[in-house]
Design brief:
With 262 residues, the protein is an alpha/beta fold. It is 32% helix and 20% strand. Pfam families: Lipase_3.
Length: 262
C-alpha cells in the first residue's frame, strides 16, 4: 500500500475492531494507563475511544459504527443537513449529522452535560493537539464517516494536526460540496473488503461522493481507486462463475504431497 504500510493497516484494523467491546484495556496495545478517554452517545454507550501515550507523538481516535437498531435506522436518513453548527460549510448525511450532534453522556470526572458527541470529541482531541500530539482517526462503517467530519473540523481549527484517516467499510459522507471542501483527501484511506454493500451506500452516485484513496481488498490482492461500477461488476461476475471455477485443475492440485503421504 502506498503511503500506508501493511503493519499500519493491520494496527488500525485491530484497534477499530476493539472499539466494539464494552471493556478495552489500552495498556495491552502500548497506550498509557491513563491514556484513554471515552465519548458516549445519548444512551451512555461508548462510540469514541481516544488513545494516547506520553512518549508517542500520535494519538488515535477510534470510532465504532452502527451497533444497535436505532443506529441502523439512522442510516436510512439519507437526506442532508448543514454542518454549519460544526463550523464546516457543507452538508452531510442526516443520520451521521444526528450521531455527531446528539448529547454525549458524561463518562469521566472532567465531563459535563450539554456537549454533543462532536463537541466532546473535538474538545478532548484539541487538548492532546495542544500538548504536541498529532491525531490519527480510524473508524468502521458510520464511524469512519463521522470520523472524516471530526478530522476536517480539527484540521480547520488546528492546521496540520491530522496525521491520517483510515476507515473500514465506510459509506459516503456528503455531497459534491463536501468532496470539494474536504481538506484531508490526501491523508484519507478507505479500506473496502470484497463486495461490502455498505461501501456503495447511500445509493445516489451524484448526490453522495467518497473522498480519499480507496483500497479494495479482493481475491487476495489490493486494488487502488477502483470505480464503484467496476468493483460491483467484478464481484457479480465472480459470484456467477464461482461454481465453474471449482472445475479448474488448479482446484484439484491442493497439495503436491497429498498422495505421497498415503
Amino acid at each position: 500500500m502506498k503511503s500506508l504500510k501493511r503493519y499500519q493497516y493491520e494496527k488500525y484494523a485491530v484497534l477499530c475492531n476493539l472499539a466494539y467491546p464494552r471493556v478495552f484495556k489500552q495498556t495491552r496495545y502500548g497506550f498509557d494507563p491513563n491514556g484513554q478517554r471515552v465519548v458516549a452517545n445519548r444512551f451512555g454507550k461508548t462510540v469514541v475511544r481516544i488513545l494516547w501515550s506520553k512518549n508517542k507523538e500520535e494519538a488515535v481516535i477510534v470510532i465504532k459504527g452502527s451497533h444497535c437498531i436505532s443506529d441502523w435506522l439512522l442510516n436510512l436518513a439519507m437526506w442532508q443537513r448543514s454542518c454549519k453548527n460544526f463550523g464546516l460549510n457543507y452538508s452531510i448525511h442526516a443520520g451521521f449529522h444526528f450521531i455527531l450532534n446528539q448529547e454525549s453522556q458524561p463518562t469521566h470526572n472532567k465531563d459535563t452535560l450539554g456537549l454533543s458527541l462532536f463537541e466532546r470529541t473535538v474538545e478532548i482531541a484539541s487538548e492532546l493537539i495542544n500538548s504536541g500530539k498529532r491525531i490519527t482517526i480510524t473508524g468502521h462503517s458510520s464511524g469512519g464517516a463521522i470520523g472524516c467530519v471530526i478530522a476536517d473540523a480539527l484540521e480547520l481549527s488546528h492546521p496540520k494536526s491530522i496525521k491520517r484517516i483510515v476507515t473500514f467499510g465506510q459509506p459516503a459522507v456528503g455531497g459534491y460540496k463536501f468532496k470539494r471542501q474536504f481538506k484531508l483527501a490526501h491523508k484519507t484511506y478507505r479500506i473496502c473488503c470484497d463486495l461490502d454493500i455498505v461501501t456503495f451506500l447511500p445509493p445516489f452516485p451524484l448526490l453522495y461522493w467518497h473522498v480519499g484513496k480507496m483500497l479494495w481488498l479482493y481475491n487476495g490482492r489490493i486494488y487502488e481507486n477502483t470505480p464503484s461500477i467496476v468493483r460491483l461488476g467484478r464481484s457479480i461476475v465472480s459470484w456467477v462463475i464461482r461454481p465453474f471455477s471449482y472445475h479448474l485443475m488448479s482446484k484439484y492440485i491442493r497439495n503436491k504431497d497429498y498422495f505421497d503421504n498415503r
